[in-house]
């Protein structure tokens, strides 16, 4: 009888020990702090103020648009679902092209000064820019397509050698309306207007939102001058502008890589 009592007591002690172990493990797990897998962005805006001035060569306080090392790129899905169709515009500029300036220019260089911009790194409300592309200068690397069906599809006219065509039928323009800080990064959120005729009877203006990235001022290895960059990206719906071709998707992505120097 005594032996049986001892065995029962031993079983009770074992059960109590197991329960205590389980409870203690559960409490330990409750105290575990989850590992933070993502860190909040480190946002640090400097005080750079970058302005074009009168673009006087040799004046290092005046910044010049470096078109040779800049580009306006576009991309869209082929037939709306397949791989990307991509290209760039050979002729573009940073100028507020008013109605009076929308004409043909007999020149092979920039028809208008690239001075319609200002960048304030820490005061985005003062930052602004206006720009344009010549639609008929799209370059996909396929000359037959660029000078063929593309012209009629985009509602424009063929290139005339020695002429920069800034008429309503051949120019798409952007103009900022507001630039603010992006709260999640060092970039900026840009509200802008896109004006383009496409195949419509008259040019249409649509309000869009884009992202602006500042590539900080630096001195290249060659020395003697400084450089900086601005990268703008946005998307628009080409159907808004009367483009009906089923070879391209509704959405067209634009990336503007603008480089500047103070030579």
CATH architecture: Beta Barrel
Spell out the helices and strands N to C: HEEEEEEEEEHHEEEEEE
CATH topology call: Lipocalin
Q: What's the main sheet like?
A: 13 strands, antiparallel
Total number of strands? 15
Class from secondary-structure proportions: alpha+beta
User: Radius of gyration from the CA trace?
Assistant: 30 Å
- Mean pLDDT, all residues: 89
Task: Kindly give the count of domains.
Answer: 1
What features would you describe in this structure?
By secondary structure, the chain is of the alpha+beta class. The model has no long low-confidence stretch (mean pLDDT 89). It starts with a helix and ends with a strand. It has one domain: Beta Barrel (Lipocalin), CATH 2.40.128. It is globular and about 50 Å long. Strands 1, 2, 3, 4, 5, 7, 8, 9, 11, 12, 13, 14 and 15 form a 13-stranded antiparallel sheet that branches. The chain is 14% helix and 35% strand. The protein has helices spanning 2-30, 143-146, 149-153; strands at 49-50, 64-65, 71-77, 84-89, 92-93, 104-105, 117-120, 128-134, 138-139, 164-165, 171-181, 188-196, 204-218, 227-237, 251-261. The protein contains three helices and 15 strands.
Fold blueprint:
Elements: H1 2-30, E1 49-50, E2 64-65, E3 71-77, E4 84-89, E5 92-93, E6 104-105, E7 117-120, E8 128-134, E9 138-139, H2 143-146, H3 149-153, E10 164-165, E11 171-181, E12 188-196, E13 204-218, E14 227-237, E15 251-261
Antiparallel strand pairs: 1-7, 2-15, 3-4, 3-15, 4-9, 5-8, 6-10, 7-8, 8-11, 11-12, 12-13, 13-14, 14-15
